[in-house]
Every structure is written in structure tokens, then in C-alpha cells.
Design goal:
Helices cover 18% and strands 55% of the residues. It is of the alpha+beta class. It has a five-stranded mixed sheet with strand order 2-8-7-4-5, with no helix packed on it.
Length: 110
Amino acid sequence: MSIKTIALAAATIAALGTTASASNYFELGENLDASSVLELGLVRADADGVVEIYKSVAGKPGALIGTEDVHAGANSNVRVNVGKAPQQDVIAVLKVNGQTVAERDYDIVR
């Protein structure tokens, strides 16, 4: 195998890895209505996973307040029950196979 072939194979693998990770995301904007059920809209995951909602503490995930399972592909109208309406901003984390693949900070509109 030549060095050019190895370099081309490595570049292809790197490009595919970037494309795959780019397909995990939260589609909705930055604001959520204060509610006991947070409506995240469309969530896209490469494989089955879970959305976790955390209280935002100085911009970092604090206490876990809710979770919702998602399936591989596009999950429309994802809703996460958080018990009672959050009084502070939240952070949504999408995990696939235990790894964080997407994260979004949301401002809670009171």
C-alpha cells in the first residue's frame, strides 16, 4: 500500500467521522417556555440515545432534572418532563452510547 493510498484512506475516515458527529443536534432555538414539560422540538441522533436536562449553573450542567429516550434518526416533538417549571436556564445534553454528542444551552422564558 502506497503512502498516497494510506493518506487518502485516513482523510476519508476523518471526513466521515466529522460528518457523522455533525448529524447529532437540537434543532430548536435558544428559548424554552417555563413549563413542567420542556418542548425541545426536533432532536437528531446517529443512534438510539437519551436527552438529559440539567439546571444551568454558571453555564455548566448542574443537577439532572429530566430525561427522555430518543431513537436513531430524527425525533420530532421531543418533550422532557422536568417535574416543575425551571426557574433558571437549562442545558440539554444528547448522549449516544454514554458519550455526549450534542449540547444546547436554553434560556427559560418566564
